[in-house]
Write a structure and sequence with these properties.
Length: about 750
């Protein structure tokens, strides 16, 4: 049986002489002593990175008055304790070079390779993020964002090593900075260390932050713990001897280590449970480390035979491990004099994971050259799967992706202009973000900026983006947004708005069409929906099968009902009620309408929204002769009169065509297609675009044939124009342009 007597897991770095520690850190020879696990080639590369960093930071001094290079060396030393690879150690030495020394990423790639440069670049990006709120949910989002932004787990490990050394030397910084840096460490970096299973670093960061955030309370508690340690020395020693004797009697090979609760965890327990220091009974405890999992449960039985367990104080984190890979049995026993003593029972491999977490991945590789059995390989399924991935791919990025999948949902974390963090699913766009803020912001979004740069509304979001949304009260959701939004909320809100808009527009169009169809029958206007006409409308609704007038008018607007047929059915009902056709109106309507239809014309000005669509086969614009087709459930579709598609529909379904005409003052532009045949050459596209711009025609899309080897090629433009006059000017400008052989409006021939 091997016994290790240790009273505290608190890092020696916090109690050692800071000046001595920094002196050691300033020596590369001291760092070299920790790099015996590297090959000669790797060691040479790390030394080269040190020389480069030393030269880059030449003349820079830390707050302590020591050369700045002491900091990168200290960070690399911590990474060496975790047995990180040569690339990570090089990045640790160079991690401030991009930010502070005017070194470029290209220079790092040329000197040390792309992987090292990417690690340094990732660290530089994390360094630029600043957390400025103490809200718990925002702190959690910030932690997740930091993890998500790091494409490689080594970036986070180096960052934690960097923060640890900065905290160890925080006393040298100006006093006014203590609170902000300590708070950030406590809220952000310590929980990240815990999430990754780096318990030793987690405890050290907590205590260092506590020391600088609440120095008076830290000092008082430190004295109280020292006194308690003296008072309870005999008690702890007796428990230790009893436990050793019990395991010796059982002939079990275990390692026993003392554990002392950190000052910060004591303080939090006192604060949260409103306890005095004397009431905190689990300041001291023990860890029992066994060779394998079965021995853990056997050791637990031995302990329970020695002392009585406290009911409800047993937890099995081996059978049900934590997300960060932590595994251990926890039990609290009633020791001598009725004092509660906590025990943690785990295997040596579990202890490695418990103390070093993700870093145990590298520790394992450095310390174990033989392949262990599947049941014992670190004893953690979570870390086991990660090791398998690394063994198969040797890809640190893939390794980290699997870590992140287990740690938190696949998400990106972005900022509002006021620095609030929003969690969005990966692949989410600017429109998703707008609807997450508020449905009104999404409905009226017209433009956006990401990090100060104007971007399309379909742009995908990335971690750390700062997003601004510009809105316009007159704007409405675009149906095309449904093609790229990712969140259910955005999709639902867009559909809901479009459905409401479509119903309103269709009802309005249906009312207009029924009124015009009734005028063709000699009735000046629709009867009002009031008590006087209630019987007429009820009879008409029984005929149509609709629940109410709104539904009937919507069906007419969508083409599900023919306005002329409904009008002819309504006419005898009106006649019976005493409303007779006006002979003059009847004559005028019938003889001015076309022969094919007799229900008046629908006037179009471009304000019809979803109830009216302009056919893409012919793309009519004001000035074209047009006609309307009532598609079944599609609303009114407007075709050019000479459109071949419309002619075929008219031959098969003539009763669904109605007369439509352009308003004298359309309120918007309309899209049409032109085909420009050009000779291939430099600058042709620019000249063609300039010709269209001079006609004030907006280009909305360009299609080019892949015929670069040929002398001539066709360019297809979708352009927006006010009317046929503007279209004619655009075509004239195109025909006068050098290199343009032909310019004409596109027409479908079948």
């Amino acid at each position: 049986m091997t016994v290790l007597k240790s009273k505290s897991s608190h890092s020696s770095a916090t109690t050692a002489n800071p000046a001595a520690a920094n002196a050691t850190a300033a020596s590369f020879a001291g760092l070299t002593a920790k790099l015996d696990y590297l090959s000669a080639t790797d060691l040479a590369q790390v030394r080269q990175a040190y020389r480069f960093a030393d030269e880059a930071h030449l003349g820079q001094i830390r707050n302590s008055g020591e050369p700045y290079i002491t900091h990168p060396i200290a960070v690399a030393a911590q990474c060496a304790d975790w047995k990180l690879d040569a690339q990570a150690l090089m990045a640790a030495l160079l991690h401030d070079a991009l930010e502070d020394c005017s070194v470029t990423k290209i220079e790092l790639i040329e000197r040390f390779g792309s992987p090292v440069a990417e690690l340094v670049d990732g660290l530089t990006k994390l360094e630029k993020l600043h957390f400025n709120t103490r809200e718990e949910n925002q702190a959690e989002s910030f932690r997740k964002m930091l993890l998500a932004m790091a494409r490689d787990v080594r970036v986070i490990l180096i960052k934690l090593a960097d923060r640890t050394h900065n905290m160890r030397t925080l006393s040298d910084a100006p006093r006014e900075k203590w609170s902000r840096i300590a708070s950030e460490t406590l809220d952000i970096y310590a929980p990240i260390a815990h999430r990754l299973g780096l318990n030793q670093t987690y405890r050290e960061l907590q205590d260092l932050a506590f020391c600088h955030l609440r120095p008076w309370r830290h000092a008082i508690l430190s004295k109280a713990v020292a006194k308690a340690r003296g008072r309870r020395r005999d008690l702890i020693h007796k428990v230790q001897l009893d436990v050793e004797a019990a395991f010796k009697l059982s002939d079990m090979k275990v390692r026993i280590a003392g554990r002392e609760k950190t000052l910060y965890s004591i303080y939090k327990k006192m604060e949260e449970k409103h306890l005095s220091f004397a009431q905190v009974t689990d300041i001291y405890g023990f860890r029992v480390l066994t060779p394998n999992i079965i021995d853990c449960y056997t050791a637990l039985g031995t302990l329970h035979q020695l002392y009585k367990p406290v009911p409800g104080k047993f937890k099995d984190h081996i059978a049900i491990g934590k997300l960060n890979g932590y595994q251990s049995l926890h039990t609290t026993l009633v020791g001598p004099s009725g004092v509660n003593v906590e025990f943690q029972v785990r295997t040596e491999a579990m202890h490695l994971v418990a103390e070093s977490g993700v870093a145990a991945h590298w520790l394992y590789k450095a310390n174990n050259h033989e392949e262990p059995s599947n049941g014992e390989r670190l004893g953690s399924k979570w870390l086991q799967s990660l090791l398998d991935i690394q063994d198969e791919t040797r890809d640190a990025a893939e390794f980290w992706e699997h870590v992140k999948v287990d740690l938190f949902p696949d998400a990106v974390y972005v900022f509002t202009p006021k620095s609030q963090i929003m969690s969005m699913p990966r692949g989410a766009t600017v429109i998703d973000f707008a609807y997450t803020i508020h449905s009104n912001v999404g409905d009226h979004a017209v433009a956006a900026k990401i990090n100060g740069q104007t971007v399309p509304l379909r742009t995908e979001l990335k971690n750390g983006d700062v997003i601004e949304i510009d809105t316009d009260k007159t704007a409405t959701p675009n149906p095309a947004w449904l093609g790229f939004v990712r969140t259910a909320r955005a999709r639902s809100k867009i559909r809901q708005h479009l459905k409401t808009l479509a119903q309103t527009d269709s009802e309005s169009l249906g009312e207009k069409m029924l009124a015009q169809a009734l005028r063709a029958e000699g009735i000046e206007q629709l009867p009002e929906d009031n008590e006087d006409n209630k019987i007429i409308w009820e009879k008409l609704l029984r005929f149509s099968g609709n629940k109410n007038l709104s539904e009937l008018l919507t069906d007419i607007g969508l083409g599900k009902k023919i306005a002329s047929i409904v009008a002819k059915r309504l006419l005898p009902m009106l006649n019976a009620g005493g409303t007779k056709p006006d002979a003059l109106l009847l004559t005028r309507e019938r003889y001015t309408a076309t022969e094919a239809v007799a229900q008046g014309s629908v006037v179009l000005d471009g304000s019809e929204n979803t109830s009216v669509r302009y056919a893409q086969c012919c793309r009519p614009v004001p000035g074209d002769a047009i006609l309307g087709y009532l598609g079944r459930g599609e609303g009114l579709i407007v075709h050019a009169e000479d459109c071949m598609v419309a002619k075929k529909l008219r031959h098969k379904d003539s009763e669904r065509f109605i007369s439509v005409e352009w308003s004298d003052d359309p309120i918007r532009t309309f899209e049409t297609e032109v085909v420009v045949t050009v000779t291939n050459g430099k600058g042709v596209l620019a000249r063609v675009a300039s010709a269209l711009a001079s006609a004030e025609a907006d280009i909305t899309r360009i299609d080019m044939e892949d015929e670069t080897a040929q002398e001539a090629t066709d360019l297809r433009f979708i352009i927006a124009v006010r009317d046929t006059n503007q279209l004619d000017i655009a075509l004239r400008n195109l025909r006068r342009t050098p290199s343009v052989l032909k310019a004409q409006r596109a027409k479908k021939t079948n």
